[in-house]
Structures are given as structure tokens and as C-alpha cells.
UniProtKB/TrEMBL annotation:
Taxonomic lineage from the root: Bacteria, Bacillati, Actinomycetota, Actinomycetes, Streptosporangiales
UniProt keyword list: Transcription, Transcription regulation
Keyword Transcription: yes
Name by which UniProt lists this protein: Anti-sigma factor family protein
Superkingdom of origin: Bacteria
Occurrences of domain Putative zinc-finger (ranges): 6-39
Amino acid sequence: MKRFTCDELVELITAYLEDALDQPARDGVQAHLACCEGCVRYFEQFRATIGALGDPPPEKLPADVRDRLMSAFRERRRS
């Protein structure tokens, strides 16, 4: 099973939540979340944001809103 870094996990969260990863990648994400408190917080914040937005497909969000959200999540993870 691939062991993901925190940066790699950030890039995979959307695909993980959309069930778009193959099983080995899903297992790797789950293994990382099982041992990284910071990424669990990031994951929960991402899920909360999706819930607050009503889970619109990404293509329905204006590009500038989608880009700002993704930047905010990435910046928060780095701090």
C-alpha cells in the first residue's frame, strides 16, 4: 500500500470523497488519516465545507470560488 505524505493527501481528498480512487489509493488515504491528526482535521473541514455548500459539483462553483477554497485549504494545511 502506498504511504501518502500530507501534501499528497491534500491533492487526493476530493477524489477520495467522490469515491474516485482505486482501492489501493483509498487504503493509503485511510492509513494516513488513521495516524495524522492534522490531516484528519483538514479532511473534516473539507467535508464540512462541502456540506455547507450543499455538495454542488465542482464545475457548478464559479472558478474563482473553487480556486479560493482550494487555496485556503492548502494554506491552512501548511500552517
